User: What shape does this take?
Amino acid sequence: MPPRFSLLRSGRSATLLSRTSQKSQTPICLRYAPHRTITADEKPLPKADEATPGPNQEQLPHVSEEAATMGKITGEGGPEIEQGTPVQEVLKRDEASQEKAPKVMQEQIQSSSPNGTRSFSTCTRSRQEALITFEDSGIETSGHKFGLPALPLAANMHLKYRYAPIVKQVTNLLMRDGKLSVAQRNMAMILNHLRTASPPTVNPDRPLLPGSPPASHLPLNPILYLTLAVDSVAPLLRLRTQKGMAGGGVALQMPVPLALRQRRRQAVMWILDSVSKKPSRGSGRGSFAQKVAEEVIAIVEGRSGVWDRRGGIHRLAVSARANLNIRRR
Assistant: This one.
C-alpha cells in the first residue's frame, strides 16, 4: 500500500514557500505632482518704481514731433516737410495706369499743359539756405579773449605759416642731411636758452637797430631777441665781380643791394661759421644749440666777430660805388 501523507508529520520536514513579496510601483504618469499655475489675482506682479521708468516707457518722439517742438522753442514754426512727387506726374509716365485712374485725374492730366519748371522741390533744402555768413550767424564775440579773426582770412593765416618767418628760415639753415626734426629741436633749444639767459648789456659802439626795445625786455620775447640780433648784423649790400667792365678783361666789383631774406641768410651763415670755429665745451644734444645761442647773445652785446665781417663788406661796397658809373666797353 502506498504510504499515507500525514499533515502532522510533513509539517515538520516540508516547508511551504511563500510568494516573494513584490514592491508596488507607482505609474510614471502619477509619480510627479502636476504643476499648478498661479494667477495674477492670487499673487499680483511687482510694480515698478515710478522714478525709474522701464525700457519701453518714455520712448523718443518721432522726428516730426521733435522738429515741431524745436520750432516752438526757437519760434520758427513747425517743421518744413518738402513736398514729394505728385501722383499726376507718376501717371504721366505710366500710360497703362492712366486708364485705371479716376476721371478727375485723367481730366487734370489732359488739361494741364507741360511746363519746364516746377514750383516745388523733391530734394532737400537748397545749398544756399544751408550756407550762412559769419555776420548772419549771430555768434557773440564778447567772450573771446582776443576776438575772432576778420573775414575773409589773410593768405598767410594757414597752418603752413604757423611759425615766424625768421624762425622758419633759421630752422631751414640749421638743417643738415634733410633732418628737419633735429633742426626744429635745436631751434627750440636756442629760443629756450635766449629766454632763460640773463639780460644782455648793449655796447654803445655797436648799436642795434633803431627802435629796438630795452635790453632787459629781450629775454621776455626770444623770437624778437633772435630777429634783432640777425637783422642788426645783416649786410645791406654784396659785391658782385663782373668781368670786362673796364676793358681788356679786367674784372670790377659792383655793389648789389640785398633783399630781406638774402640779408638774413647771409647773417645766419656768418653766425654758423663763427660757431663752427669755436671749441666744443662738452657733448650732448644741446651743445650745438647752446653755442648758437651764446653767439646770438654776443652779437647783441657787441662781442661777436660777425660785426667785423659786416663792417668790412660795407667798406668795400662803399668804395666800389665808383664802378657803377663805368660803362662797359
Summary: Residues 123-127 have pLDDT under 50 and may be disordered. The chain has 13 helices and two strands. Strands lie at 237-242, 252-257. The first strand starts at residue 237 and ends at 242.
